[in-house]
C-alpha cells in the first residue's frame, strides 16, 4: 500500500482498524520535534491549570500529545553534529552539558583543504595544477600531512562557543525531560505510514500495519496500523519521512520548489587512543578529499570519542558513489590518520540530508497540519547547519500552538499561517535560509566553481551568488554510457572483480586506483562487519519492506544501479533477475536510495519508493 | 473455571545485546563502559516471562500483573517506552544501580521487600515470574533468592510452558538435557517460575496498550523507591566478556550444504 493510499479511507474496508482521538499527533522525534514538545511542555509546567491545555479529545484531562517515532529507540538518531545551539540554549537557559553524554562546547575550529596523497581522486586539470602549486610552496604556507589549514574560519562557518553533540544522546536527554513532564508521550518503534487526509485537510496519522509479509499482505499476528485522529498533526519526520512525502505528493510544492539537492552524511564514532591530544570541543571541517566534491568533518566529544565523517552529495556525478569506502579512505588521509590510527570503531551510521534548503521548502502548514525541521526546508546550506534551525522551527510552532490554544482558535491553515508561518518568516531561520538559498550554486560544475559561489554568497550574506539550474536528482547521476573509453575500460576491469563476488562500485574504485582497504578488524572493517560491530542494525519482524521499486522493468534496464553503490547498509544488492533486491534487516533508513536512483517513471520522482518502516540502527552513540 | 492469579514479574534492564560491551573497573567495582549511554532493553529471558504472564492473566479474568524492575529511574523510563506498548501491566520501579554486578542477595532483598509491600497482593495467588538466566550475568540466582525471601518453596527453572487446571493446580514444563522437558505438576500457587524462552512471539507494539500503561508508569516512576544495594563483602577477581570472533567473507555459488560443512569444520577447529 503506498502512503498516498491513505487518502482513500475506504480502500481496505475489510480490515478492522482501531482508531484513537488525541489533540496533537506528532510524526517523528528529532531536534525539531524536541523543540516543539519542549516549548509546549515548558508552558504547561508553568501553569498546569491553564484551561488552554485542557484536552478536547479527552475532556477533563490535560492536552493529549502523542509522538510516534519510527526508530526502535529515540536515541537511534544518526548524527554527530556541531551547532551554534542558540535556539537550544534559548529553550534551556541553564543547560548543563554534563547532563548530556558526549556533549561538549566548541573550543577550536579549523578548515582544511585536503590534497590527494593517493592519486586516485577525480580532480579537474585546474585543481591538479593548483595542488601542484600548493605542494611547491608547501613549506612556506604551512602545508602539512597533505593538508592546508586555512588561516581563518569564515564567519559563516564559525560555530565557536556552539555545541558538539551526539544527536542520539541529545534526543534521549530531551525525550527523558519531556516524558517526565507527563504532558507528552513519545513512542519509539512506531512508524507512521502516512497522514489521514480529507481532501487537503489532515485529520491525523495512520500507523504502519504489523504482522504483514514482505509486500504488506496480512499474515500471522496481523495488527492493522491504528488511526490516530488529531486536531493538529505535526510533521517532523525528516527529509525522507512517509508523512512529509505523502503531503508533498498530495499538495505539491510551492512554485519553483523541488527536492533536488541531497547529500549522504556517513560517519564513524571512534574511540581515540589514550594520550590523544585532541581536546573535547575540537572541530575540523575539510574539503578536497577523497573526492573534491566530498566535504568531511571531525568533532571531538568528551571521553576520547570522536565523530568523523563525510558528505557525499548528489552532484558527485559518478554513478559508483559509495560512501562507506570513501569514508574509509577519508579517515586514512594523513592529516586525520595521525590522530585516528590507534583508535577503535565504536559506532557507525548514515543519514540523507536535504540540501535544497529553502528551494526544497514545502507548504509549511495547511488545515490540521504544520511542518517543522529538516523536512520543512529549514537546513541552512551556507553554514552547514540544520539541528539548531530545526529546533528553532519546532519552538516557533510550539509558541504558535500555545497562542492558538489560548485564543481558542482551531488549527486551520489560515490560523497556522498567521501564527506559525509568520513567526518563522520573521525569524533568523528565515533570514539565514534566504542568505543560503543559492549558496550551493556552482557545485554542479565542480569544486572550484562551487567554492567561489559559496564564498560569494557567504561573504555578501546572500546578496550575490552564481546562477545555476539544478536538475532533478536522478539526472545528476552521469550514465556510464556517457563516460569516455577510459571509463569503460575501468568498467571491464571491474567486471572481472564482480565475477569474483565483489560489489561493482567497490571494484570500480579499486580499478580506478584507490588502494584496497587494509582491514584490521578494529578500525577498518568490512561494511558487513560495520553493520554489527559499529552499526548494530536490526529490524523487528512483521513489517513490510519500506523500500520498493515502482517499476522493476526500469530497474532491470538500469545500467548504473547507483542505489546499490550508495546503499549505506548494503541492504540493496543485485538480485538474480537483474533487479535490485532489498533486505530490510540491513537497512539503516538513511534514505540514500530515494535520491540515488537514475531512473524516473515521471521525470521528477525516482523509481524507488521509500515508505515507513521499523528497525534500523541501534546505536545511541551516533 | 478461571483462576484469579496475582503474577509478579521480576525483570531487570540490560544493554541492548547489539551494543559493544567493554568491562571496566570503577570506584564502585566492575561495570560496563558507558553503560548509561548504551540503549537498554528488558532482560530477554525476563521479557519472555512477561509476555507469558500477560497471556496467562488475560486467560484468567480478574488476575493482576505487576512488573518489578530495579535500575536507574531514567533508564527504566527509556525502556518502558518500548515495553509498555507490548502488554498491560502495573510497573513497580525501584531506583537502583545499573548493571549486573551488584550482589544478587542484595538485589533479591530489594525486590522481595517491594513485592511484599505491594498493595492488594495476595500471597496465596502469587506466581513469581522472571528469567532463569540474565543477559547481565547469567548466574541465574536472583529469582530463586527472591522466592526464598518470600517463603515460596515451589520453584521451577528453565520453564517453557505452564498449563493451569480448574482446581488451581498447574503443570510446568522445565527444560532438561537433550532438548527434552521435565513435566511437573504443582498443587497450586504460590510458586516461582524462572522462564526460558516460552512459546510466545514478542507481541506487536500496540499504541492503545502503551497509552493505558503510561498513565500509571510515569507516576510510579516519579515516586520510585530508591534502593541502595550493599556489596555484602562481594568482590570480583576478574571480569571478561565471552570471546568473540568475526570472520566475514562474501561467497558466491556455494550450496547450503557446502556452507554448513565449512562451518562445521571451522567450529571443529576452534
What labels describe this entry?
heterodimer; A: 622 residues; alpha+beta; FAD/NAD(P)-binding domain; D-Amino Acid Oxidase, Chain A, domain 2; eight-stranded mixed sheet; seven-stranded mixed sheet; 18 helices; 21% strand; globular; B: 270 residues; alpha/beta; Rossmann fold; nine-stranded mixed sheet; two-stranded antiparallel ribbon; 6 helices
What can you see in these coordinates?
The complex is a heterodimer of chains A (about 625) and B (about 270). With about 625 residues, chain A is an alpha+beta fold. Chain A has four domains: about 5-10 and about 20-80 and about 170-260 and about 360-435, FAD/NAD(P)-binding domain, CATH 3.50.50.60; about 105-160 and about 260-355, 2-Layer Sandwich (D-Amino Acid Oxidase, Chain A, domain 2), CATH 3.30.9; about 440-470, no CATH class; about 475-615, 2-Layer Sandwich (Alpha-Beta Plaits), CATH 3.30.70. Chain A contains 18 helices and 26 strands. In chain A, the strands form seven sheets. In chain A, strands 1, 2, 8, 9, 10, 13, 19 and 20 form an eight-stranded mixed sheet that branches. Chain A has a seven-stranded mixed sheet with strand order 6-5-15-16-17-14-18. In chain A, strand 11 and strand 12 form a beta hairpin. In chain A, helix 1 packs parallel to helix 9 (about 385-405). Chain B is about 30% helix and about 25% strand. Chain B has a nine-stranded mixed sheet with strand order 11-10-9-12-8-1-6-7-13, with helices on both faces. Chain B has a single domain (about 5-225), classed as HUPs (Rossmann fold), CATH 3.40.50.620. Chain B has helices at about 45-60, 75-85, 105-115, 140-150, 205-220, 255-270; strands at about 5-10, 15, 25, 30, 40, 65-70, 90-95, 125-130, 155-165, 170-175, 180-185, 190-195, 225. The chains are: A alpha+beta (about 625), B alpha/beta (about 270). The interface of A and B includes residues 18, 207, 211, 346 and 532 of A.
Amino acid at each position: 500500500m503506498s502512503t498516498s493510499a491513505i487518502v482513500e479511507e475506504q480502500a481496505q474496508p475489510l480490515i478492522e482498524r482501531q482508531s484513537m482521538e488525541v489533540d496533537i499527533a506528532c510524526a517523528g522525534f528529532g531536534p525539531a520535534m524536541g523543540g516543539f514538545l519542549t516549548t509546549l511542555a515548558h508552558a504547561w509546567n508553568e501553569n498546569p491549570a491553564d484551561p488552554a491545555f485542557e484536552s478536547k479529545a479527552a475532556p477533563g484531562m490535560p492536552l493529549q500529545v502523542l509522538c510516534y517515532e519510527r526508530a526502535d529507540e529515540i536515541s537511534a538518531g544518526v548524527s554527530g553534529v556541531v551547532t551554534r545551539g542558540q535556539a537550544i540554549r534559548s529553550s534551556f537557559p541553564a543547560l548543563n552539558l554534563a547532563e548530556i553524554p558526549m556533549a561538549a562546547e566548541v573550543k577550536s575550529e579549523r578548515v582544511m583543504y585536503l590534497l590527494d596523497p593517493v592519486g586516485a581522486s577525480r580532480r579537474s586539470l585546474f585543481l591538479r595544477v593548483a595542488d601542484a602549486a600548493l605542494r611547491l610552496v608547501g613549506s612556506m604556507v604551512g602545508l602539512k600531512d597533505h593538508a592546508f589549514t586555512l588561516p581563518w574560519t569564515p564567519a559563516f562557518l564559525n560555530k565557536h562557543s556552539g555545541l558538539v553533540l551526539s544527536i542520539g544522546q541529545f534526543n534521549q536527554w530531551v525525550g527523558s525531560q519531556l516524558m517526565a513532564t507527563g504532558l507528552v508521550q513519545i513512542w519509539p518503534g512506531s512508524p507512521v505510514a502516512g497522514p489521514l487526509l480529507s481532501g487537503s485537510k489532515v485529520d491525523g496519522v495512520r500507523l504502519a500495519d504489523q504482522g504483514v509479509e514482505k509486500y504488506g499482505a496480512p499474515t500471522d499476528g496481523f495488527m492493522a496500523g491504528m488511526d490516530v485522529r488529531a486536531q493538529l498533526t505535526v510533521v517532523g519526520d525528516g527529509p525522507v519521512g512517509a508523512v512529509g512525502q505523502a503531503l508533498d505528493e498530495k499538495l505539491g510544492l510551492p512554485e519553483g520548489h523541488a527536492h533536488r539537492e541531497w547529500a549522504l552524511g556517513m560517519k564513524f564514532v571512534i574511540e581515540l587512543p589514550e594520550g590523544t591530544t585532541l581536546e573535547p570541543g575540537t572541530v575540523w571541517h575539510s574539503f578536497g578529499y577523497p573526492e573534491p566534491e566530498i566535504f568531511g568533518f571531525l568533532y571531538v566529544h568528551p571521553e576520547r570519542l570522536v565523530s568523523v565523517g563525510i558528505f557525499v552529495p548528489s552532484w558527485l556525478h559518478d554513478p559508483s558513489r559509495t560512501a562507506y569506502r570513501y569514508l574509509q579512505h577519508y579517515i586514512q588521509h594523513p592529516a586525520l590518520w595521525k590522530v585516528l590510527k590507534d583508535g577503535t570503531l565504536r559506532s557507525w551510521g548514515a543519514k540523507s540530508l536535504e540540501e535544497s534548503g529553502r528551494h526544497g521548502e514545502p507548504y509549511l502548514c495547511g488545515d490540521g497540519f504544520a511542518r517543522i525541521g529538516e523536512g520543512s526546508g529549514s537546513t541552512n546550506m551556507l553554514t552547514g547547519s540544520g539541528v539548531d534551525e530545526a529546533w528553532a522551527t519546532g519552538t516557533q510552532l510550539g509558541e504558535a500552538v500555545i497562542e492558538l490554544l489560548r485564543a481558542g482558535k482551531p488549527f486551520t491553515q489560515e490560523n497556522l499561517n498567521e501564527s506559525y508561518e509568520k513567526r518563522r518568516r520573521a525569524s533568523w531561520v528565515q533570514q539565514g535560509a534566504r542568505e543560503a538559498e543559492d549558496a550551493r550554486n556552482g557545485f554542479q560544475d565542480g569544486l572550484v566553481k562551487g567554492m567561489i559561489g559559496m564564498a560569494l554568497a557567504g561573504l555578501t550574506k546572500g546578496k550575490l551568488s552564481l546562477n545555476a539550474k539544478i536538475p532533478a536528482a536522478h539526472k545528476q547521476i552521469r550514465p556510464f554510457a556517457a563516460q569516455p573509453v577510459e571509463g569503460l575500460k575501468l568498467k571491464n576491469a571491474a567486471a572481472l572483480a564482480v565475477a569474483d563476488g565483489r560489489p561493482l562500485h567497490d571494484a570500480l574504485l579499486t580499478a580506478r586506483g584507490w588502494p584496497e582497504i587494509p582491514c584490521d578488524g578494529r578500525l577498518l572493517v568490512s561494511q558487513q562487519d560495520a553493520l554489527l560491530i559499529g552499526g548494530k542494525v536490526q529490524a523487528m519482524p512483521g513489517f513490510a519492506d519500506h523500500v520498493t521499486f515502482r517499476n522493476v522493468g526500469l530497474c532491470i534496464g538500469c545500467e548504473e544501479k547507483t542505489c546499490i553503490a550508495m546503499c549505506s547498509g548494503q541492504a540493496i544488492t543485485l538480485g538474480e533477475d537483474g533487479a535490485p533486491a532489498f533486505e530490510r534487516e540491513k537497512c539503516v533508513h538513511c534514505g540514500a536510495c530515494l535520491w540515488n536512483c537514475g531512473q524516473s517513471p515521471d521525470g521528477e520522482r525516482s523509481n524507488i519508493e521509500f515508505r515507513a518502516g521499523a528497525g534500523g540502527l541501534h546505536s545511541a552513540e551516533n | 473455571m478461571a483462576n484469579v492469579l496475582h503474577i509478579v514479574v521480576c525483570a531487570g534492564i540490560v544493554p541492548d545485546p547489539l551494543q559493544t560491551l567493554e568491562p571496566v573497573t570503577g570506584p564502585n567495582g566492575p561495570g560496563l563502559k558507558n553503560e548509561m549511554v548504551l540503549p537498554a532493553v528488558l532482560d530477554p529471558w525476563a521479557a519472555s516471562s512477561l509476555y507469558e504472564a500477560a497471556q496467562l492473566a488475560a486467560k484468567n479474568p480478574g488476575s493482576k500483573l505487576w512488573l518489578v524492575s530495579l535500575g536507574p529511574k531514567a533508564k527504566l523510563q527509556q525502556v518502558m517506552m518500548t515495553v509498555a506498548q507490548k502488554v498491560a501491566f502495573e510497573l513497580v520501579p525501584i531506583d537502583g544501580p545499573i548493571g549486573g554486578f551488584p550482589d544478587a542477595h542484595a538485589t533479591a532483598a530489594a525486590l522481595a521487600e517491594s513485592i511484599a509491600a505491594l498493595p492488594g497482593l495476595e500471597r496465596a495467588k502469587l506466581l513469581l515470574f522472571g528469567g532463569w538466566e540474565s543477559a547481565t550475568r547469567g548466574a541465574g540466582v536472583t529469582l530463586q533468592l527472591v522466592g526464598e525471601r518470600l517463603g515460596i518453596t515451589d520453584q521451577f527453572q528453565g520453564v517453557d510452558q505452564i498449563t493451569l487446571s480448574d482446581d488451581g493446580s498447574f503443570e510446568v514444563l522445565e527444560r532438561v538435557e537433550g532438548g527434552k522437558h521435565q513435566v511437573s505438576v504443582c498443587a497450586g500457587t504460590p510458586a516461582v517460575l524462572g522462564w526460558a524462552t516460552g512459546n510466545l512471539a514478542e507481541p506487536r507494539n500496540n499504541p492503545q496498550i502503551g497509552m493505558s500503561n503510561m498513565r500509571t508508569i510515569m507516576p510510579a516512576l516519579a515516586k520510585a523507591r530508591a534502593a541502595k544495594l550493599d556489596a555484602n563483602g562481594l568482590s570480583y577477581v576478574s571480569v571478561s566478556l565471552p570471546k568473540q570472533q568475526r570472520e566475514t567473507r562474501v561467497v558466491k555459488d556455494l550450496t547450503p550444504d557446502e556452507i554448513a560443512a565449512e562451518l562445521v569444520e571451522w567450529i571443529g577447529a576452534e
